[in-house]
Design a protein that fits this description.
The complex is a heterodimer. Chain A is built from 15 helices and 18 strands. By secondary structure, chain A is of the alpha/beta class. Chain A folds into 2 domains: 11-256 and 455-472, Aldehyde Dehydrogenase, Chain A, domain 1 (3-Layer(aba) Sandwich), CATH 3.40.605.10; 261-440, Aldehyde Dehydrogenase, Chain A, domain 2 (3-Layer(aba) Sandwich). A 7-stranded mixed β-sheet of chain A has the order 13-14-15-12-11-16-17, sandwiched between helices. Chain A starts with 18 loop residues before the first strand and ends in a 6-residue tail after the last helix. Chain B has a single domain, classed as Aldolase class I (TIM Barrel, Alpha-Beta Barrel), CATH 3.20.20. Chain B has helices spanning 12-17, 21-30, 36-46, 53-65, 78-89, 111-118, 139-152, 163-167, 171-185, 196-199, 202-214, 233-250, 265-279, 296-309, and strands spanning 67-70, 103-106, 124-129, 156-160, 189-193, 219-221, 255-257, 291-293. Chain B is of the alpha/beta class. Chain B has an 8-stranded parallel β-sheet with strand order 7-6-5-4-3-2-1-8. The N and C termini of chain B lie far apart (44 Å). Classes of the chains: A alpha/beta, B alpha/beta. The interface between A and B is medium-sized, with 24 and 28 residues.
């Protein structure tokens, strides 16, 4: 047997500091909230202490953002704004290794993903939107679309840096200023992004980054002087925010949960479909709102596909997020691990057939072995609820119509995957899918030029592409 | 078609596939397609595996033991083959613990010399045959060519398929030729060269792989080395999938040999990772995986020294042949 020797990326590259502070009005400051300790989910050790915001700090940040909007950023020509945004993009690339290692430490995702996906995509979003800053008149929203003002943004823990980029880049390009709150369990890369923003010499107050838990997020989204709220996270919290903002006239975009279907027709390229299924549900430990968590496979190829899938999933290497050969890293928190375990138990109880990879798991840290449930029916909780973990539910179908009906039979509608060698079937199924993103013969590919967003309980509004600009313009 | 006699143990579904030309065509066109973007993405992704320390040392020694040390030039002489054989016996004269290579691969008229030089070493003598590299001759000549090499003592035959026949859809003809060459091989192992650079699509590579396996090839091999592109990682992925699926259906393990264009240890390790994770760890043996290469061996030797001595020594410290 050939055992790969450990190939860990050095954690020194992360430049980890014992304390991190919030970023308000161009300065790193202590918040008046109770400091939080952020934990490495791969080892359960405390990484750093982070100061958090009290309500007065949120107010200070919003005031700073307002001032920066009124005096500088809102009236600056787009060509000037673009220079700052390009500079941020380049600095993200320059500090790419540092950001990647820090992200893997704080979040638990494997270094190969933070290095090859999160950081490059974050930089790409800044590059892409920098290009728009002086061309907004050609985006299809009138000859001179105006910004909205101050954007309050709250992001989740699954792609901490990438989500920050998805939020900040379009807001800045359109001329808005920002108050951003990263997730409680993953604040570090956003605060290093604050350093980069300082390095890029952005005028004080244009971007403010606050740390803290849900209460700080609520204070940001409900602040009366915020003109636009953007939230990515759970459907539950999204509904609360929508209720709060109803009738205030403030603009809102929400990117919430999902329970995406990955449909494999019998004429699919099976080996690549297996890769796409694996990438769809085990990428980032399944902590992906657009994860392909429901596999719908045509009955005539179900046995063959499942056999190949089990063999492939068995080769996934689960463990130390910093090891360059790790495919599946750590679950982000104990709380999330417990949630996954509970939902998996309901799968057992409701009679689904459970298969778990025999891969070894580390003794310390939060890990969950890749799991595939077969014989799943639409009625089961594991087919209906978002698990947000490395757990796949396999359902079968007999005809294309049945596949579409089952795929759409969910309150969500964020993404979908279609696997077939037949082009006409791809076009037919994509039209029928009630999902914001439909991938054909691939899955979980992100590009700043492609709008991303959902239907129904997966939220509204788009991020990325020309369409995504609308969320930050007064149109 | 002269089929079923060669593979008496084929399960019914596969035995049906080779019943006649039409069945063969239906079978090969019924194989699942290969998505180009997907297979290339997977090959590139697996290429990022980081193999260090003991696992790298193991990979280097394993790769050396899988090399088919090759010279296939018009300018080949007995002297050249003799020195190649010496290199095969003792790849690094200063280090006796370096494994021997798997085989020496030459043209048929050089087999006799290679046999003499390698007697008693356990190193195989592979010979290309069947109007290598183009395969453009009559079946009679191809079989004579094979018999000539086998009679001279070749233990392995690397044949080329008729790509012209394959591309014009005459699968039965290609199949029959392989079957007859296999017959002419006797006890010699047969490697079937698909020349994937001329087949152009991954779908064709998959079909040709199955064709070679159905006809009784012990190995399927990517290329002659005379056509560009020669071996690539994604093509090798598709061929590894074929032997894996063949095993799942028949219980038999067949081999894969990428040839041409693999020059560095880094590349060789990427191929071994693919063998490990696509076909499975059982394929990590010279019985089931080979590298068709000439310059690769010296890079493996240099990297081996680097691993042991802690510093790089350079090309003047390994023998050119």
């Amino acid at each position: 047997m050939w055992e790969y020797a450990p190939a860990p990326e050095s954690r020194d590259i992360a430049n980890l500091k014992p304390n991190y502070r919030m970023f308000i009005d161009g300065q790193f400051v202590e918040g008046a909230g109770e400091p939080l300790k952020t934990v490495n989910p791969g080892t359960e050790e405390v990484l750093a202490e982070v100061s958090t915001a009290a309500p007065a700090d949120v107010d200070k940040a919003v005031k700073a953002a307002r001032r920066a909007y009124d005096r500088v950023w809102g009236r600056m020509p787009g060509s000037e704004r673009a220079k700052y945004i390009f500079r941020i993009a380049r600095l993200i690339q320059e500090r790419g290794r540092e950001l990647a290692v820090l992200e893997s430490l704080d979040n638990g995702k494997p270094i190969k993903e933070s290095r090859d996906v999160d950081v490059p995509t974050a930089a790409a979003h800044f590059f892409y939107h920098a290009g728009w800053a002086d061309k907004l008149g050609y985006a299809g929203y009138g000859p001179d679309p105006r910004p909205l003002g101050v954007a309050g943004q709250v992001i989740p823990w699954n792609f901490p840096l990438m989500m920050a980029a998805w939020k900040i880049a379009p807001a800045l390009a359109c001329g808005n200023t920002v108050v951003l709150k990263p997730a409680e369990t993953t604040p570090l890369t956003a605060l290093v992004l604050a350093e980069i923003i300082q390095q890029a010499d952005l005028p004080p107050g244009v971007v403010n980054i606050l740390a803290g838990a849900g209460d700080v997020g609520a204070a940001v989204t409900s602040h009366p002087d915020v003109d636009k709220v953007a939230f990515t996270g759970s459907t539950e919290v999204g509904k609360i925010i929508q209720r709060q903002l109803a009738g205030t006239g403030r603009k809102l975009t929400l990117e919430l949960g999902g329970k995406a279907a990955n449909i494999v027709f019998d004429d699919a390229p099976l080996d690549q479909a297996v890769e796409g299924i694996v990438n769809g549900i085990f990428f980032n430990q399944g902590h992906v709102c657009c994860a392909g968590s429901r596999l719908l496979v045509q009955e005539s190829v179900a046995d063959e596909l499942l056999e190949k899938l089990h063999a492939r999933v068995s080769t996934l290497r689960v463990g130390d997020p910093l090891d360059k050969n790790t495919d599946v890293g750590a679950i982000n928190s104990r709380e999330q691990l417990t949630k996954i375990q509970q939902l998996v138990e309901t799968g057992d109880a409701e009679g689904a057939e459970r298969w778990t990879s025999a891969c070894p798991l580390p003794d310390k840290g939060f890990y969950f072995a890749p799991t595939v449930f077969s014989n799943v029916s639409q009625a089961m909780r594991i087919a209906r609820e978002e698990i947000f973990g490395p757990v796949l539910s396999v359902l079968t179908f007999r005809t294309p119509d049945e596949a579409v009906a089952k795929a759409n039979n969910t309150p969500y509608g964020l993404s979908a995957g279609i696997w077939t060698e037949k082009g006409s079937r791809i076009l037919w199924a994509a039209q029928k899918m009630r999902a914001g993103v439909v991938w054909a013969n691939t899955f979980n590919r992100f590009d700043p030029t492609a709008p991303f967003g959902g239907y129904q309980e997966s939220g509204f509004g788009r991020e990325g592409g020309r369409t995504g600009l609308e969320a930050y313009l007064d149109v | 078609m002269a089929a079923p006699t060669t593979s008496p143990s084929l399960p019914p579904a596969l035995a049906d596939a080779v019943r006649d030309d039409a069945s063969l065509r239906r079978f090969l066109h019924g194989l699942p397609g290969v998505d180009q973007v997907g297979v290339e993405q997977r090959a590139a992704g697996l290429g990022t595996r980081s193999i260090k320390k003991a696992s790298k040392m193991w990979a280097i020694d394993t790769a050396i033991s899988m090399v088919d040390l090759t010279t296939l030039e018009g300018a080949d002489t007995h002297g050249k083959v003799r020195s190649l054989a010496a290199k095969a016996r003792r790849p690094d004269p200063e280090r006796a613990d370096v494994p021997k290579v798997a085989a020496v691969c030459v043209y048929p008229d050089m087999v006799e010399t290679a046999v003499k030089e390698l007697e008693g070493t356990g190193i195989n003598i592979a010979s290309v045959a069947t109007a290598f590299p183009s395969g453009r001759s009559s079946l009679k000549v191809k079989l004579e060519d094979t018999a000539y090499a086998v009679d001279a003592g070749a233990t392995e035959i690397d044949m080329v398929i008729d790509r012209g026949a394959f591309l014009s859809g005459r699968f039965g003809q290609v199949f029959d030729e392989i079957v007859q060459v296999k017959h002419a091989c006797g006890d010699a192992h047969l490697k079937v060269i698909l020349e994937t650079g001329e087949l152009a699509t991954y779908d064709n590579v998959r079909r040709a792989s199955w064709l070679g396996l159905l006809a009784g090839g012990d190995f399927i091999k990517t290329s002659t080395g005379k056509v560009s592109p020669a071996a690539t990682l994604p093509v090798t992925h598709v061929m590894l999938q074929a032997v894996r699926d063949w095993h799942a259906q028949t219980g038999q393990r067949r081999g894969v040999k990428p040839a041409g264009g693999i020059r560095t240890t880094k590349d060789a390790i990427k191929y071994l990772v693919a063998v490990h994770e696509v076909a499975g760890p059982e394929w990590l043996t010279a019985d089931l995986f080979r590298f068709g290469a000439s310059t690769l061996l010296n890079d493996l030797l240099m990297q081996r020294r680097t691993q042991l001595e802690g510093h790089y020594s350079g090309p003047d410290y390994v023998t050119v042949d």
